[in-house]
Task: structure prediction
Amino acid sequence: MPGRWLRSAAGARRRATWLALITFALFVFPGFVGAIAVAQDAASTTTQVSGIDGLSWMNIRDSSGIPLSDYRFATGDESLFKPRATVLWAVLGLEFIGYIAIVTTAIWLIGYALSFRWLDMFSAALRGVADALAGQIATPIMLVTAATIGAFCVAWFIVRGYHAKATMQVVTMLGVAVLGPVFLAEPLADVLSSDGLLAQGRDLGISVAAGLNGNANPNPSQLVATMQSDLADNFARQPLQVWNFGHTVDARPGCRSAWSAGVAAGDDGRVISGMKSCGDAAAYAKAENPTMGQVATGLMLLICGGILLVFAMYLGLKVIKAALDTIYHGIMSIFGFAAGGFVYGPTQTFLVRNLVDGFVAAARMTAYTIFLGVYVLFMGNLFAQARGQVMAVIIIAGTVEIVAVFQLKRLSSGLSRGNDWIANRFSLAIQGSQSKSSSSSGVALGMGGGGGKPSSGMGFLSTIGALNTINTSPVTAWLAGGTINPLNPLANTRKRIERSTRRILASREEGYIEHQLSRTNWRGVAVAAARQHGGMNTQLGVSRALKALRDNKVPESRVHHMLLASGASHEMVNHSLAALSTQESTVSQNPYGFAPLQKAIATAWAVENHVGHEAHEAFAAQAVIAADSFVRHSNAPAPGAAVDQAFVQRVENNWHSDRALRAAITPDEWNAAGRDTRWHIGHRVATMHRDAAQAYYANPTDINRDALLRSARRVANLDHLDPEGGLDPWNP
Result:
C-alpha cells in the first residue's frame, strides 16, 4: 500500500507538470511574444518618420530618392495568435538592421573617399606647414651653396671629358632654377587646390566611369552621389526586395512606385497592400507568410554585405593613401627645389621621384575610380538579370567582391611599379646615361637598386642572404641587447644559458675570494663594535657585534661562526640571536609607522614578557640597541631653531595617555606645528627612551623596568598609526 501510494503521488506530480507546460506553451508564451511584437510595432510606429537614426546622417539614397535608413522589411501582422510569424519577424528584423547598417556604411565610405571631403579638414594646416618649411629651407645661402656644388659637378665632368653629362647637368640646374621659385611659392597648390592633380584625376576617373554606365555628358561634381545611388540600388534596394518578396518588384513600374511610397511613409502595411494593389500576388503572399528560408537568405546577405564593407574600406584606404602619399612627396619636393635638385646624383633622383609620384597620383585616382565604375556597372547588370535567383545572385556577388579586392591590389602594385619605372627613366636621362645597356636595364643613382624592374627569380635568395648578413652582424647583436645571431631559433634561450653559466662561475670565484679576504675584516668589525660596549665577554657587546655584522651584509649562515671566532661564548651568541628573532617577529607591520620606533617598542615589550628567562639579559641588551637606533634616526632640530614651547608643554602634559593626547591635540594642530617643534618632541622622547633602556640594562630592577615600559607607552602614544591622525614627531 505505501509503495502504490507513492507511485500514484509521483504520477500526479508528472501530470501536473505536463499540464503546466502545455498551458504555458499554448497561452503564456504566445502572449509574451505577441506583447513584445506589439510593443516593437508601436515603437516603430512612433519613429517611422526618422527611420534608423544611426544611419540617417550618412544620407545615402537609392535612385528613387529613398534614404536607406528608411528601408523596411515588410511582413504580415504579428499578434498573440501568430507566435511563429512573430518569432520569424523578430529574427528577420535583426538580420535586416545588421545588413542595412553594413551596406549603408560601405556605400558611404566609398563616396566619402572619392568626394575628398576628408581632405578639406586639414588642407589649410598642410598648406601652412609646407609654406613654413619652404620659408625655412629655401634661403639664399642654401640656394647659393647647392648651386655651387652643382657647378663643381659640371666642372668635374668637363675635366673628365664627360661633356654630355656636363651639358645635361647644366640643363637640369637651369630647369630647377626656373621651376623652383614657382613651386616654392605655393608648394602644395598643385596637390590640394580644387583643380589640382588629385581632383583632376578623380574627376577624369568619375567621368570615364559615368560613360561606362551610359552617361554621355557626365558632371564629375555630381557623379559621386550617382555612384552611391547605383550602389544603393544594387546592394540594398534590389537584394532587400528579393529577400522580402522573392524577386525584384521594381520590374513593374506600379510596384516600384508602391514600394517606394510605402517605405517613404514608414508603413509595413502600406508596403504589403501596395504589392497587392499593383498586381504582384506572389510578393504579397511572400510578405504575409515569412519562412525560415528567408532567415538563411538574410545570413547570406550579411556575409555579402560584410565583404562589400571590406571592399569599400580597402578602396577608401587606397584612395586616401594615394592622396596622402602625394602630399608627402609634395613636401619632400621642397628639399629638392631648394637644394637637392642642383646636386648631381641621388639628390636629383629624389626630386624626380617626388615629382613623378605627384603626377602618377592623378593616374591612381583615375584608375581607382574607373575600376569602381566598371565594378558598379557589372554588379548592376548582375542584379538586373537576377530574375528571382536569390542565392545565385548573392553568392556570385560575394565572389565578385572578393575577386575585386585582389584585382584592386594587383592594380595598385602595377601602378607602383610603373611609377618607379618612369622615375628611373627620367633620372637616367638627367644623369646622362647613354649607353645601350644602361638605357635598356640601367638603374639610376638613388633608385635603390630596383629601377622599377620586376623582381627576378633570385630576389628571394637575395633577401635570405641579406637577412643572414644582418643576423651575423655585430651591430645587430648590440642592438638586440647582446644576443648573438638574434634571428636564429632559440637565440634568447642560448643567451640565457650562457649568461647563467657565466654568473655561476663568477659567483663561485667571487665567493671564494670574498670568503678568504673578508673573514678577517668581518671579525675586526665585530670586535670593534663589541669593544665600545664592554667587549665580547658582555651580552651588550655581543649584541652590538651581531648588529654590526648584519649592517655589513654578512651572510646569515656566517654570522654565528663570526661571533664565535671573535671571542663570544656559545651561550651569549644563542641568546643574542633569540632576542633578535623575537624583535623581528613581533615588530609592528604598520606600513605608515616609523621602523626604528616600532623596533624600540617591540624590544621593550619583549623585556617585560621575558622576565626570568635565561636570555633576559640579551633581551635587555637588544632593547638598548633598538633605543639607540631610535635616537640616531630621530631628527634633532638645529641649534637655535624656533620651537613652540607652549605646544611642547601641551604634548608633555598629555603624552602618558593616548586618549588624553588625542583629545588635547587634534590632527590639524599636529599638521600646523612646525617641523622643528615636532622634531624637538620626537628627539626628546627618543632620548628619554634610550636612557630608560640603558638604566634597566645596567640595573635590572622592577623600578627601572616600569620606567622602561612607561617610556615605551609614551613613544607608542606619540606614534600616529593612521595617516589621518596628523604628522607624527618623526615626520620630515
Confidence is low (pLDDT under 50) at residues 1-7, 21-50, 434-441, 449-458. The CA atoms of residues 537 and 568 lie 6 Å apart.
